[in-house]
Amino acid sequence: MANTPAMGNGPFEFTDSNDRQVSIPISAFSFDSNSKLQVTADWQAVVTAQPAAALLAYMQAEGLLSPAAAPSTFPAMIVNAADPGAGGNNITVTISNIVPATDPTQTTFTVTVTENDLYTGLTAATMEQTLGSSAVTGSSPGLVQVKHGSVDPFGVPHSTSGVLTGSPLHMDVLGTGSPPKVFTLLAKKSGADGGLTHVTVTPDSASPSPTVETFSLHATWTKNATATLLTLASVVQSQLSYEISVALPGSGAYSLPAAAATTLSGGAPGASASATLFTGI
Q1: Contacts of residue 113, Cβ cutoff 8 Å, sequence gap at least 6
Q2: How far, in Å, CA of 205 to CA of 218, rounded?
Q3: What span, in angstroms and rounded, lies between the C-alpha atoms of 252 and 161?
Q4: With CB atoms counted within 10 Å of each terminal CB, which end of the chain scores lower, N or C?
């Protein structure tokens, strides 16, 4: 970790034992992660001798020489879920692989978008009310919905894992019953990126009732893209718009976001989840 620059009424000046005036720039001082004063090598011998050593100790004790305050972060961009609803609260946006350039607008960074929806305690008879369908507004809609009319309410799915395929993008989940299909899942909306949706269905090992067998459904989606501040809006629109959009912060211009993972929040019926990404320090 880099040292923190020192702050004080510089330069640091004193008269040495030979009555010579010595002036040391404040930039020669810094503080390490333990708040211990550090001095550049070319001034080490000077400040460890008297009277400089005593004067430095006094200045620190009186707060006349102290670590500079860390610069404040500020909004870099606003990220919004592409679709309204609580499912947007499961979206995480991660900034990574920042590669600085001489021109800050040419600095590249990777934007990774992930949605992670987990449903537990489902039954075939009730899952359409939870995930939703073309005919039913689900209580917790997300990456997938149920194909209306496809459900065997008495069926119990086998363990299944895979991505949505076909046209429309879907997954048939098989299990007990005759015919064996228990239900069909569909992508939440049209678009080729729905094919990035991965679904795992797992029967519960210990259902709450021997007469009602439950299962869990885990749907995930992830994709990344590389952008600069100049290309950010177009890259998100062309490559990540299945899940998110970006908007300018209050400053009216995008800034380089810190390398961090941020989860959207505030999603509800009729309202899209969102988050503000901040600059680094």
Answers
A1: 91, 92, 93, 94, 221, 222, 223, 224, 240, 243, 244
A2: 16
A3: 44
A4: N
Q: Where are the domains of the chain?
A: 4-67, 75-114+222-278, 116-219
Q: Provide CATH code, domain 75-114+222-278.
A: 2.60.40
Give the model confidence (pLDDT) of 61-109 as tens digits.
888 888 877 777 899 999 999 999 999 999 999 999 999 998 889 999 9
CA atoms within 13 A on the CB side of 274: 13
User: Is pLDDT at 42 greater than 90 in this prediction?
Assistant: no
Q: Are 87 and 143 in contact (CB under 8 A)?
A: yes
